[in-house]
Design a protein that fits this description.
Length: about 210
């Protein structure tokens, strides 16, 4: 699964070019969007909820998630109007990182508004990841695939792939894992909801690193 991904030819796009290309293709008549997320530590500068989370203001971070409701509602309405089925698969390592704990509260809002998100424990795909992690990708129909790139946790653009066979192979791998994955809300209620506020920012004691 994902055997052909490493070393396949691609075009490097900076963040602005990636977003422009993404929306151009998204609006061109595709029918499926698949998103596979693997990283456990990211930065989302400019997102008020993440800024509060990073500063150690957990309750404030949770309250600010709601600011995204209108934007997400519009995004899902647009996708539905275009006939695009969106699915997202989130790989989670244990113990859950502070970032993932925060992110899942954002994802819960997305699920509430209609996003199709499932979760898979990284331990369940250890056989697939013996040599490398599964790729961090966004696949738009059968036309284009992006390997999302990050610089010190910050979004930095993407590698753009157009090889039909590679896109088909990666899409099949995604579908296989998605079928094996767990319903988001069941996972959230069992693994995320009971967690205490994460120790980040100014709230991390000098003798205690992030978990």
């Amino acid at each position: 699964m994902f055997e052909s991904f490493p070393g396949n030819s691609s075009e490097r796009l900076d963040r602005k070019a990636y977003h422009q290309d993404f929306y151009r293709v998204f609006e061109s008549g595709i029918r499926h969007l698949r998103k596979l997320e693997r990283g456990q530590h990211f930065k989302e500068k400019g997102f008020a909820s993440w800024e509060a989370f990073a500063a150690g203001e957990w309750e404030e971070a949770l309250s600010l998630v709601e600011e995204k409701r209108k934007l997400y509602t519009e995004q899902f309405r647009d996708a539905a109007d275009r006939g695009v089925l969106q699915r997202r698969l989130r790989v989670v390592e244990f113990p859950v990182t502070p970032y993932v704990q925060w992110e899942f509260h954002v994802l819960r809002l997305r699920v509430e508004l209609g996003d199709n998100i499932r979760v898979i424990d990284a331990r369940a795909i250890s056989d697939i990841e013996m040599h490398r992690p599964v790729p961090e990708v966004v696949i738009l129909g059968d036309r284009v695939m992006y390997e999302v790139l990050y610089d010190d946790g910050n979004a930095a653009g993407a590698n753009r792939f157009t090889d039909p066979e590679l896109i088909a192979e990666t899409s099949t791998g995604f579908d296989t894992l998605y079928d094996r994955a767990e319903d988001f809300l069941g996972f959230f209620d069992r693994e995320i909801s009971p967690l205490p506020p994460p120790l980040v920012g100014d709230r991390v004691p000098a003798h205690h690193g992030q978990r």
